[in-house]
């Protein structure tokens, strides 16, 4: 089952709730909230309050992607705000295993995100604490960037690594996902596709954009 998730990073910030609902009505399986602190990435976006507000608007999975330094500090607050799944970056955690353990203990699904320059080997010792792995297919910080094609091999290798070790952990991809790149990442093994600017843009409606993405992967 391939799931499309809408990243609200490219949504109209003056109408976030409405735009999240539009994506839900269009058939996305989840909404991803990109939390950025201006230090881990060169951009500042949302906090716990936005997650809490969106929790009251959508009933699909609410993913929170923490692109912040020392994410451990805010795990509890984002889960309390309503996150169903919390992604922390390997690169931002001093104690990744403990961070994942804490997320699970607090009742949320634990996701690890890795940047394009980070090797898969960093994931090996925490697979038993991981519910999802998010492969960044852009360098995090902004929507609308170009898909980094070299990550296709990484996705294939990751799927191979999981198969070899007997783990069935879903692979999410995030960054530059559109009707052209969606079939490529699915073919490589991704089953959760996070899309922002290909859903929220002025070329077509949210519904039309989600339908085009779903059609591109024949869901
Ligand atoms: C990167 C963000 C983006 C966003 C999706 O920091 O995480 O990847 O979710 O953006 P698009 O789909 O516009 O590349």
Describe the fold and architecture.
By secondary structure, the protein is an alpha/beta fold. It has one domain (3-216): Aldolase class I (TIM Barrel), CATH 3.20.20. Helix content is 32%, strand content 20%. The protein contains seven helices and eight strands; from the N terminus they run βαβαβαβαββαβαβα. It has helices at residues 16-26, 48-55, 75-81, 96-105, 151-165, 181-188, 206-216, and strands at residues 3-7, 30-36, 61-67, 85-89, 109-114, 132-136, 171-174, 192-195. The protein has an eight-stranded parallel β-barrel with strand order 1-2-3-4-5-6-7-8, surrounded by seven helices. β3, α3 (75-81) and β4 form a beta-alpha-beta unit. α1 (16-26) runs parallel beside α7 and α2 (48-55) packs parallel to α3 (75-81). The radius of gyration is 16 Å and the shape is globular. It starts with a strand and ends with a helix. 45% of the residues are buried. The mean pLDDT is 97. Residues 7, 9-10, 32, 34, 65, 67, 138, 140-145, 174-177, 194-198 line the site of D-xylitol-5-phosphate.
